[in-house]
Amino acid sequence: MKRTFFAFLLLAAFVVQSTVFAQTAVKVTPAERKLAEGVTAKQLSDYLYFVASDEMEGRDTPSRGLDTTAKFIGMNLSKWGFKPAGDNGTFYQKIALKRDMPDPAATSLEIGGQKFSYGEDLVRASGNMTGKMTAKIVFAGNGWMVKSKNLNPYAGLDVKGKIIAVFGEGPMGGRNLVPMPAGITQADLTGTRGQDWADAATYARENGAAGVMVLASKFLTSNWGMATQMFGRSRMFVEKLARPQSNPQPGNASNVFLASEKLSNAIFVGEAGNPLAGYTNSFELTKEFNFSIGTKSETAWTQNVVAIWEGSDPVLKNEMVAIGAHYDHVGVNQNAPGPDKIFNGADDDGSGTVAVLSIAEALAKAPKRPKRSVLFVWHCGEEKGLWGSEYFNKFPTVDIKQVVAQLNIDMIGRSKKPGYLAPCDTNPAPGRRPCNESLSGENEVYVIGKDMMSSTLGSIVSGANSGYLNLKYDTRYDDPKDTNQFFFRSDHYNYAVNGIPVAFWFDGEHEDYHGAGDHPDKIDYAKMEKVSRTILITLLKLADLKERPKVDKQLPAELTQR
Ligand SMILES: [Zn+2]
Question: Near ion ligand 1, which residues have CB within 5 Å?
């Protein structure tokens, strides 16, 4: 599951089928039950202790740990007789990544004659990666202009071609660049943005400033290591998707710099006053900002893992039911608090990775094949912005029009057991670490999107469950009013916008979500077994359907853009 770094504008813009379907149980045969029982808690645990081990180093995209995990999946698929469906008869769809990074030889930073180091004293959170800039600096408080409240830190200042220095937080962990000042609420922002009210980035854009420099606030200083890691080093993106995705882009301001405490203090020496020492008036500094940045780039490789289990029906085998998970996670973070720096991602999405692998094994060891083929895709780069699934849908290695539905598994391993509301920090900085309130129980799971595009898919997903283990399927996240935006946050999304009906299984956020503590020993393997078997039954039912599930509801236009 990908974390939301920035507010999606399309919040609540889609309409969900509101009709309540009678849940007609689908009859599950003894042979199907036997096949599903090929997935066991023991097997899931064996695989997950490998995939989420420290040796996989948190499976960042790209990384050696991720490549090793891919090889582990591919080795098993080969052993079980799967047909490779990646590039050139292999199980791997190779994806070229590009990494742009500052070129030290072509990068320099000087303020008022004093030299600083880019990447250590200053980083650029957004803006064009190459260029030269000479500009005066103006200090403008927190940078918020709100006419209805008589707030205007820019009174008497000309910002054209200059850098606006403000106090803020930087766009990290879902924070605003510069949060609204105390006493101002959304309701005070009346009239036209840019004219009647503006944040620093908007004001900079509207008034031709050269950029915004966020001075070291307490928050920024205590998270400086993360800031330099996120913004100072490099930007990576999928070459063929040609769009940097890994960094949030605050507003539309061209250049947003984050300044360290050292640099923030240094620029005010010998000036009218030091805002870090409590000086609050706006003013123009005498010092000049001289910055040049050159970049170099290198190519790195990663891969999706793709396989087909061929169907038995001579005609229907040309169609495929797709099942997938993302096998990447967020890697290692040396700035993480505490001794554990490896983000093992046992639940996210080690659980989906090994559930799909165990489903593959159960299918391969069954005496009979389903009628349709089954397409297995383990996606990379989900945590970076759904890279693998977007790439697969734009450059498919199979005839993707023959995919009749996609079942996505992202986090099915945790459960809220009685008394499991462990103490957790309700407002940790940076970012959000949820507590366990919304975690699903031992016999329940969230199911998202099943009714959005195809009534048939919706009723098969529901019916296969009620005719089998009858878990509690919680569909609350289909509600357009839900602010979590889960529909946008995992790989099924890219299949859905490609016209393929989807269903997504998810256990809910918990205290270890995107934390270093997402370990395999915290997984409820009995629940994983139940959910995995139920998804396998669903898969068999879809694979044996007479007609492919009709897309009778188009995904609303608002949902086609993330
Ligand atoms: Zn995640």
Answer: 1, 348
463 close to 469: Cβ distance less than 8 angstroms: no
- Name 53's Cβ contacts closer than 8 Å, sequence gap at least 6: 344, 520
> With 0-12 CB in 10 A as exposed, 13-18 as middle and 19+ as buried, what is 284?
middle
Which element (helix H / strand E) includes 31?
Answer: helix 30-36
Q: Give per-residue pLDDT as tens, 153-178.
A: 999 999 999 999 998 887 765 567 78
Burial-class residue 89 by CB neighbours within 10 Å (0-12, 13-18, 19+).
Answer: exposed
- Say how far apart CA 57 and CA 51 lie, in whole Å: 10
State how far the Cα of 167 lies from the Cα of 178, in Å rounded to an integer. 7
Global pTM?
A: 0.79
Ligand 1 center from residue 434 Cα (angstroms): 13
Is residue 456 within 8 Å of 550, Cβ to Cβ? yes
The Cα diameter of the chain in Å comes to 83
HEC assignment per residue over 77-127? HHHCCCEECCCCCCCEEEEEEEEEEECHHHCEEEECCEEECECCCEEEEEC
Separation of CA 329 and ligand 1 centre (Å): 6
Q: Beta partners for 212?
A: 164, 256
